[in-house]
Write a structure and sequence with these properties.
The chain has seven helices and 15 strands. By secondary structure, it is of the alpha/beta class. The relative contact order is 0.09.
Length: about 240
């Protein structure tokens, strides 16, 4: 596959030099590697439209990495973004901006190689590679794959992600927006407060005038309700499984 044309953005020269040095040793990264020391300089370089992947620091004078990412989201052909930062405070926001990964300084070479693998896989899949979601647990940022989510449940201004292994994580998001964003990945609204991943449905059950769906949960299963309002959506979803 064609190597990734890469831009590294960091206002600290030693950090920038180290990252470039590491990237030069990976065959998936094209040579030469472009660099920028500020958000403004990075945007000027990106105007050429010939960059596939950006390694982006967050805390920089002027435009922050988060602000740059928002601007890149308006590009017709936006490059992929991997954040590289000394702080984990922006991890959730970074993944809401569809970043490929979120690396913490000091960089570990094996962790960097995994980030490049993700970027290459997403590029080769045409942008349809499995999304990674940052979740907070006891002060630690962890990353889960969207494909491991069985269903999503609204809880006020948050949603709870229920996973295959039976665990769950709370993230700040609106269920309606999430349902729209994840529709192409197979997630379907079945209740005003629930979105399910059709890939993990075990069975559908009739319950009086309503219905429920069974999904895996750790060593067992769990049942989620389908509202009467969404029964038609359920029938359409079941039809998606028919040859």
């Amino acid at each position: 596959m064609t190597a990734l044309r890469t831009l590294v953005v960091d206002d600290e020269q030693p950090v920038l030099d180290e990252l470039v040095w590491l990237l030069e040793r990976d065959d998936r990264i094209a040579d030469p590697i472009a660099t920028a020391h500020s958000g403004t300089e990075a945007l000027r370089r990106l105007e050429h439209g010939d960059i596939d992947l950006v390694f982006l620091d967050i805390a920089m004078p002027g435009l922050s990495g988060i602000e740059i990412a928002r601007l890149l989201g308006r590009f017709t052909q936006a490059p992929q973004i991997i954040f590289v930062t000394a702080h984990d405070a922006h991890a959730v926001e970074a993944f809401e901006l569809h970043a490929v990964d979120y690396l913490l300084k000091p960089l570990r070479p094996e962790r960097l190689r995994e980030s490049i693998r993700r970027a290459a896989a997403e590029r080769d899949a045409g942008g349809d590679a499995d999304d990674t979601i940052a979740v907070e647990l006891a002060g630690v940022t962890r990353f889960v794959s969207r494909s491991h989510v069985t269903y999503v449940e609204a809880q006020g201004d948050y949603v709870r992600l229920h996973l295959l292994d039976g665990t769950s994580h709370l993230i700040r998001a609106a269920l309606t927006s999430l349902a729209d964003e994840w529709h192409e990945a197979g997630f379907r609204r079945v209740h005003r407060s629930i979105v399910v991943n059709r890939a993990h449905l075990i069975e559908a059950r009739s319950q009086g005038g309503g219905a429920s769906l069974v999904v895996p949960s750790g060593e067992g299963t769990t049942s989620v309700p389908v509202s009467r309002r969404h029964l038609r959506d359920l029938r359409e979803m079941i039809g998606e499984f028919s040859p």
